[in-house]
Amino acid sequence: MALSVQQIDVPTVGDLICASEQIFDTQAFNRDLTAALQKASTPADIRSQAVKILKAQQKKGRAEIAEAFQNHPFEARPMTRAYTYLTDCLVKSALHVAQEVLHPKPNPTASEHLAVIAVGGYGRGEMAPFSDVDLLFLTPYKITAWAESVIESMLYILWDLKLKVGHASRTVAECLRLGAEDFTIRTAMLEHRYLAGDEALTQDLADRLRTELFSGSGREFVEAKLNEREARHIKHGQRYVVEPNVKEGKGGLRDLQSLYWIAKYIHSVKDAADLVGLDVFTADEYRGFVAAENFLWAVRGHLHLINNRASEQLTFDMQVMVAEAMGYEDARGRRGVEIFMQQFFLHATEVGDLTRIFLTKLEADHVKAEPILERIFRRRPKVREGFKVMRNRIALKDDQSFLSDKLNLLRLFEEALRTGMLIHPDAMRLVKSNLNLIDDDVRAAPEARRIFFDLLLKHGNPERALRRMNELGVLSAFLPEFEHIVAMMQFNMYHSYTVDEHIIQCIANLAQIERGELEEDLPVASSILKRGVDRKVLYTALLIHDIGKGRPEDHSILGAQMARKIAPRLGLSKTDTDTVEWLVRYHLLMSDMAQKRDIADPRTVRDFAKAVQTVKRLDLLCVLTVCDIRGVGPNTWNNWKAVLIRALYRQTRRALETGLEDLNRENRGAEAKRALREALSDWPRKDLQKETSRHYDPYWQALHVTAHVVFAQMLRDVKDDEILIDLHPDDDRDATRVCFVMADHPGIFARLAGALALVGANVVDARSYTTKDGMVTDAYWIQDSDGNPYDAARLPRLRQMIEKTLGGEVVAREAFKSRDKIKKRERAFKVPTHITFDNDGSEIYTIIEVDTRDRPGLLYDLARTLAAANVYIANAVIATYGEQVVDTFYVKDMFGLKYYSQSKQRTLEKKLRQAIDEGVERASA
After folding, report:
1. Which pLDDT score is estimated for 372?
2. How many Å apart are CA 287 and CA 273, to the nearest integer?
3. Helix spans in 191-282 (H)
């Protein structure tokens, strides 16, 4: 028996991305199946032949759809319909073979009827290349042996086609009972679609679902979907996470689907377009819905095709490949992947706006009211004229009256922040559709400035107002320069948020410090704010410090130029504008000095103090720096950075207050020796004198007295040709300090770096000193792969591994060939290598700064290269920014001199670049 074309066609064939006969050739299937049946003699042979024919059709159909989609990479709806059509053909063909060929029943009884129904996303007719195939087998009564055989044979065919089939066999009564108990089952049946079999049975299910299950249960369904949405967002992350989940994340496809499920459940709509006629969406909002849905489905489709499997996470490597598949190219100093991800986050924001408006509106009608006693006794803040409270949300008394004063578009946010209430969705919708009212007159109005700074400075939680304003477009309307960075992703592993969200996180951190919530974690920043700073200057600088990002120019320089225009527009005086401009221009200075330079070197502090000039600027820059680093991501700030920032701040403040001449090696050395004598007061005087006289000045100025004590004890105990190792958790710095004492010999720094790298330790700071009697005293601060200090239980094994490596049992260079690998998802990052030589930043060393791609073994490769060139490494400072690392070496040549010669610098740079390139090649293999 042949399968008819009419039976396979679905109502959405007109939406297909290519012709239906290209996707599945029904005539060819019938012809090939008829020929195969003449040869097949057993049920197993029949099924095998059917699978073979269907596999060929499936392969051809998938190839046709994929090619058409790649040629039209934004045509998501036709793509999803095409895959649905192909799946329908495969499912119906499998049913045809099972029911008409393997288990024919010419005269079925009343109980031997079967309907095959698509449910869930498949039922909705939306399928990505590797979406699940969810089927409901519906029978009028308890399933018969015949129906069971048909279903089993059909499923085996589909499984042989490698389809991921979810299935259930139920009667109508069972569907109603299970749907009443489980909202997931109820939601799946909400989107059921008849495929084949007994159509009357399917219609009976549809009628009884509507009358017996869906009717009158809207409130509990809405509540369930709202709770489900909240749990999903907690699990899969917020809207601005850098590796978002396209399906389940906030602003993803599931949010749009939840919206549609509820609309269908409550309003019985067949298409989202029907929501316009019901006044749920405006025409503009519906266009936003369609654009976001189309974009997200296109992204999901490309994700599946690139991975050749179901995949929903836009990991870094996938972001690059999807951007290329969709035709995004580098432009205006930005990578194509960054432009693509900005579009992604803008659509995710649109989804957030739509779902918030829609669900909040539904919540008012369908979520249970709060208990009457709670309503009676709750004290509600009194709202100002022109506003009212609707279900504990700020709403508008009259839209026309509200719009008659353009400043009301800002007052709404002030009122919401003042009262602590959310904004009603109708008010949000009105604001979003009238952003054009925020013009130059509004921006220049003193009252608008007053409202804006009250939002930042007065109510204690400015991030809440800024996020609301940003999501509705008010922030970029009031500050047009802000629009460029809205939803802008920085394609690296360092920043966890988009640029606009990073700024809001920074503001949130500043507000937390002001509220006294971080006094224990941030004692210096907290004390600065307690003493008092110009809050308006600080908040303004923090708000616009990254506003120059996303352009070819240096964002600090460009941002400072923009600050010169923005600050006066906000009403700041010339003096305050100068300070804001300076803070934006140099907002990275303190972080760079602390993390990329040796702050134990007096020249570092002296140069920084000269740049800052005043304690007022130092205070502002310190707080801004702390908020900026903490705003990068949830785990970016740690004790290591805290110690560096605090030390640089305190030394610089002291220098500015007492004079730069206090910053010299002699003073520091005398203080350090005095501290050591106090710590080792039980030592004989002769031993103490030997210890304090055996080291050069840099040793005394760079290490804390605790390290000096450890080295003193190790030097007193060490024997000839012995290597002593001391491992100690340095809790103040979130690292483990490793101290080595041994006889000096060339290349020892590189050898130690290799030993630490081989045990999986990340070096964050390293200092190497040779005593006057030829001993090496090297100190390394290390962390594990998660950026944490090694706990005490792991230290014995760590010591054993280091000893084996230093003992020559493992050759570091050979071992790295198999271990020095870059993870697949991290290979998409492009980090250009920059190498600079600085002879002014230190009095006695040349500073070589290597800014390049981070990878295991990099420090070892660089140190080994320098050692081979007879370069003496005094210390190394390592600053890591995600996939980027800046390794800074303080060096001298073999005669103890700086590298002034340009030719020597070029030779060293060439060798370092060669070592980096060889390592990258090895790591990418």
Report:
1. 45
2. 9
3. 199-208, 218-236, 253-267, 274-277
Last residue of a domain, one of 324, 347, 366: 366
Q: Does position 374 have pLDDT exceeding 50, yes or no?
A: no
d(CA 688, CA 682): 10
Let me know if residue 436 belongs to a domain.
no
Burial of 48 by CB count in 10 Å (0-12 exposed, 13-18 middle, 19+ buried)?
A: middle
Same domain for 743 and 624? no
pLDDT the model gives residue 790: 85
Q: Are residues 223 and 202 in the same domain?
A: no
201 and 227 fall within a common domain: no
Q: Which residues 6+ apart lie within 8 Å of 915 measured at CB?
A: 861, 862, 864, 865
Q: Which residues share a beta bridge with 887?
A: 850, 878
Q: Which one-letter DSSP state was computed for residue 680? A: T
Please say whether the beta carbons of 312 and 247 come within 8 A: yes
| 515 neighbors 645 (Cβ within 8 angstroms) | no
Tell me the residue length of the chain.
925
Q: Are residues 695 and 596 in the same domain?
A: no
* C-alpha–C-alpha distance, residues 640 and 731, integer Å: 9
Is residue 191 located within the same domain as residue 105?
yes
3-state secondary structure 781-832: EEECCCCCCCCHHHHHHHHHHHHHHHCCCCCHHHHHHHHCCCCHHHCCCCCC
| Residue 395 lies inside a defined structural domain of this protein | no
Residue with tokens 């195969």: 36
Residues 182 and 229 both lie in one domain: no
C-alpha 385/C-alpha 291 separation (Å) is 38
The range of the structural domain enclosing residue 276 comes to: 219-366
**CB-CB neighbours of 917 under 10 Å:** 12
In whole angstroms, give the CA distance from residue 347 to residue 253.
11
Same domain, 643 and 771: no
Here the tokens at position 664 are: 């010299």
Reported in sequence order, the residue ranges of 140-247 that DSSP labels E, i.e. its strands, are 165-171, 193-197
Contacts of 756 (CB under 8 A, 6+ apart): 738, 763, 780, 782, 802
Overall domain count for the chain = 4
> Considering only CA atoms, which of 99, 138, 110, 126 is closest in space to residue 12?
126
* CATH code: domain of residue 141: 3.30.460.10
Instruction: Report if residue 456 sits inside a domain.
Output: no
Same domain, 597 and 714: no
Domain final residue pick, 178, 206, 234: 206
User: 3-state class of 117 per DSSP?
Assistant: strand
From residue 26, alpha-carbon distances to 53, 82, 127, 667 in Å are 11, 15, 21, 91
Asked, for residue 455, whether it belongs to a domain, the answer is no
Give me the CATH number covering residue 327.
1.20.120.330
Of residues 760 and 379, more confidently modeled: 760
The 8-class DSSP code of residue 99 comes to I
Residue-wise pLDDT for 766-820, tens only, equals 888 889 988 989 998 888 877 888 887 888 888 887 787 777 766 666 666 555 5
Which strands sit side by side in the sheet containing 115-118, from one edge to the other? Answer: 165-171, 133-139, 115-118, 193-197
Hey, is 52 helix, strand or coil? Answer: helix
Bridge partner list, 768: 778
pLDDT tens for each residue of 626-655: 999 999 988 889 888 998 999 999 999 999
Number of alpha carbons in the 13 Å side-chain half-sphere of residue 770: 14
CA distance 725 to 717: 12
Q: What's the number of CA atoms in the CB half-sphere (13 Å) around residue 287?
A: 3
**pLDDT tens track for 479-498:** 999 999 999 988 877 788 89
Paired tokens of 729: 């958790």
Per-position b or e across 252-289, b if 16+ CB within 10 A of its CB: bbbbbbbbbbbbbbbeebeebebbbeeebbeeebbebb
